[in-house]
Design a protein that fits this description.
Blueprint (H helix, E strand, L loop, with lengths): L2 H80 L4 H14 L4 H4 L11 H8 L11 E5 L4 E4 L1
Antiparallel strand pairs: 1-2
């Protein structure tokens, strides 16, 4: 083998070694970058799960407070409408409900809930009638952020 061929082979081997080292270095850098990105993705996913959970908790609290408010309003309405011990209390119930601003005028105009019967107050007083609400339960059908509908 001639000297030129030896130099050529050594140069080729040296070149291949350098290319291999560079290739190995690039692969190592890519692996490090990939590892770092996977770690960041995992942290981001954990943060998103936490954010979703806290957002759900906030919605649940809002819904619970909306249902609680509706339940309390129902309780107050029925107590004012159906707790009376005299004819004068019976007559004042619509005025008390209006002052408490619990329902719309359409509800107050409902003849089924508030019948217009002449002499009812006198009849209540003469017979010593009393009415009291024992229990009011609110069963929600749907609940939005600040509105709810249901059955009492």
């Amino acid at each position: 083998m001639t000297r030129e061929k030896q130099i050529y082979y050594y140069s080729l081997v040296l070149f291949l070694v350098l290319v291999g080292l560079r290739f190995g270095q690039l692969m190592w850098q890519q692996q490090q970058t990939l590892s770092h990105l996977q770690k960041q993705a995992k942290q981001l996913k954990n943060k998103q799960v936490t954010a979703k959970t806290s957002h759900q908790k906030v919605k649940q609290v809002v819904a619970k407070s909306t249902i609680t408010k509706a339940s309390e309003t129902s309780q107050q309405f029925f107590n004012l409408a159906y707790n009376w011990s005299s004819g004068s209390d019976y007559k004042k119930r619509i005025t008390k409900i209006k002052q408490a601003n619990l329902v719309t005028s359409q509800v107050l105009a409902n003849d089924y809930l508030f019948p217009e019967v002449g002499g009812t107050a006198v009849y209540i007083d003469n017979n010593g009638l009393k009415s009291s609400v024992v229990q009011v339960a609110y069963y929600p059908k749907t609940t939005n952020d600040d509105q709810t509908s249901g059955v009492v």
